[in-house]
Amino acid sequence: MIITPISNALGAEISEIDLSVRLSNNQTGKLYDAFLKYCVLFFREHSLSATQVLEFSKTFGAPAIYPFIQGLPEVPEVIEIIKTETDESNFGGSWHSDTSYMHRPAKATLLYAKEVPDFGGDTLFCNTNMAYEQLSEGMKKLLSDLSGVNSSEKGYQGGRATGMNKLNAMKGTYKKEAKSFESEHPVIRTHPDTGKKSLYINKSHTYRFKNMSEEESTPLINYLCDHMIKPEFTCRFRWREGSLAIWDNRTTLHNAINDYQKKRRHMQRITIEGCTPR
Ligand code: SIN
């Protein structure tokens, strides 16, 4: 297995590994160490069935059922993220950490590319530990007592179902029974595996601080969210068919760039169960 970092902030490409077969304990250990060190891992040119993607995802924890979208009938943990030639909006097209509105947000997310545009549709990632470390001592102290209130409905005018139903190929998979979620989490969270501190808010879901109004909270949320995505804290991944990424939601944000109108992009996605942020 060869591990090649792709930027100073985060991200490494892993080559010389076959993801279609059961990995050895040695390989699994190395991959997990790399996941903690680089925060997002990328793999190229793998031809995998949904079941093989699911099996590989177990390297990083227990696969979860996504609350809003129906999974594949035979592999319910795998959801399909599809933007067609006639869709204008996309799924995940703003900076966020997955399911941060849940009491136990996703630890990690795996994305596997089935079909991608010839160019466009890249995904951006940022390292929220590095962003935290670069704050002044005064700001770190101020944030240490704050909790963010995260909602699954923020940014969805008319509700999340309406937003999701704008995507032609995903209309039928939105779960009719899906409810909305809201959770409070510390703005600075400590990574349960590494002990490192990271900023844990995002513009997509965090709409205010606990015990503060939205009007009072918004300027600081905006400042922190803009700070986290400074170019030096980021990396960018260009997908090809058969590419796979797995990222650590506890110390990263990501953003699916929506710059490929009239083209099709089809991904399979699995989230990994997480713990309560502390
Ligand atoms: C997501 O937010 O999970 C989707 C990311 C992507 O499609 O690049």
Full CATH superfamily name: Clavaminate synthase-like
And the CATH topology? Double-stranded beta-helix
Report the CATH architecture. 4-Layer Sandwich
Count the domains.
Answer: 1
Low-confidence blocks of residues = none
Strand coverage percent = 25-35%
- Shape, per Cα inertia axes: globular
**What compounds sit in this structure?**
succinic acid
| First-to-last CA distance | 33 Å
Number of strands: 15
Compressed to H and E, one letter per element, the order equals EEHEHEEEHHEHEEEEHEEEE
Q: Cα-atom Rg, whole angstroms?
A: 18 Å
Main sheet: strands, sense, barrel: 7 strands, mixed
In short:
This protein is an alpha+beta fold and 278 residues long. It is 20% helix and 26% strand. The strands form 4 sheets. It has a 7-stranded mixed sheet with strand order 1-2-3-13-5-15-4, with helices on one face.
